[in-house]
Amino acid sequence: MSIKIYNTFTGNKEEFKPVEEGRAKLYVCGVTVYDHCHIGHARSAIVFDVIYRYLKAKGLDVVFVKNFTDIDDKILKKANTEGVPWKEVGEKYIRSFKEDMGALNILTPTYEPRATEHIDDMIRLVETLLDKGHAYRVDDDVYFSVESFVGYGRLSNRSLDEMMAGARVDVDDRKRNPLDFALWKGSKEGEPYWETSFGKGRPGWHIECSVMSTKYLGSPFDIHGGGKDLVFPHHENERAQSEAATGVRFVNYWVHNGFVNIEKEKMSKSLGNFLLIKDFMKEYHPEVLRLFFLSTHYRNPVDYTDKSIEDTNNALQRLYYTLERAREAGKGKEASAAPFRAARELEEKFYEAMDDDFNTALALSSVFELSKMVNRMVDEHDESRVPRILYARDVLVTLAQGIGLLLDDVDAFSEKERTRHLSRMGLDAASIEGMIEERVQARKNKDYKKSDEIRDTLAQKGILLQDSPKGTEWRIKSGVTTKGEDR
RNA sequence: GGCGGCAUAGCCAAGUGGUAAGGCAGCGGUCUGCAAAACCGUUAUUCUCCGGUUCAAAUCCGGAUGCCGCCUCCA
Question: Which run of H or E residues covers position A310?
């Protein structure tokens, strides 16, 4: 079945028809590297990672480009306040970005171009726009003339007149139209610059994406993605300057992900409610964040709350425990996976959901149904069930991994949960094992009062005990943290 | 002021014409020394409200109310 994608440009879901048969060309606006990434960046990265993975899984040869904006006002400002060379600022945060993406299991794009490595191409594009009369010089700056491009405003669905009516347009007498934007900025004293036929300076923000996308993908290319906030002005401007220069369509499908709020408030530095990816991962497994975001449709806003994350954490644990149980059930038994209809139907449902504009929230329902299916069969303790258990488990894992979930090893997952929890609570495994051993003895002596006391003590520390014929195991009860009081 | 979005159970969240997915939490049961985990059952006769179209509406149309985003750097 074909894939349908919601296109911001038309406002409709459309069947995906790639420019080149069998290929998909995808460009996503990356980050400006002047700070660590927050969970808003993570959402965008995860959404497009899923799209990238899914297009590949559909057999398309995907060329995926994600840029780094490594020359920008904010970077220069940071360099200034920290007293380090601006290039070092970029390097530092590119490194940080890669760490975070690695931890979140974001696949590395085919190309990760940096703005500073494409200055020559940007200069040529500005020259072309000047030649064609779409741009004009004012002192050392070069502006794009929005009135020279007929379709300006069509992507963000607004007309020039409407935008003019907005009171918040920066009025600059030097511009022909207040909405004209900088293609090139003359450099001020002490700022980095490049020599060009139109003066010393550095590129404006929008020009780099036009250059780097078409350089690696051609014109038109298939999908251009980014956060919803980029629709205007960034993508509108990219589109205008690209199409004005080339005379052909720039992008076929515009895809935008919704925003992340924290406790119903927009994340912003001024509100001080930013949550860095690195800080999140101190508290939770990275897949918790991925599962959380994929539980909501990518175009809708999502509200990050401690409770939602706890809920998601429980749900993810459930999936991993299912895998563990399936493994135990199949252990030592000569059995190979046997396909059966009910599991296949869920698999089909999953793909149908994904085909329909990457409906991960709906697709996940199949994953959870499979989890329940596996658990139910495991509970039957019937050896003849094992082949089906293994099959359902395999389907579950394949589907989940297709969207970047359940990629961790089952034991590694549990181990990470324990380690994270213990360090958070300031506990050590040995003392817990000791208490468990003590309790095992008490139980042998049928001293249930004592054994229950030990269990309660551990429970208060967020340690959950599970008795089974094989012995007593412990795991983490979510929601118990030392910082419980400040919540 | 302009443009756009959202409103579904205690909470989160799919569903855009055919009679309400899934997750979390809760409750009852099975299992267990008791628990936990897991499973089974249960929790919205109803989808913010008011009208309309239709054999049929959470879904389409009109109106009202509430919340949010963009219009300025921003994933």
Answer: helix A306-330
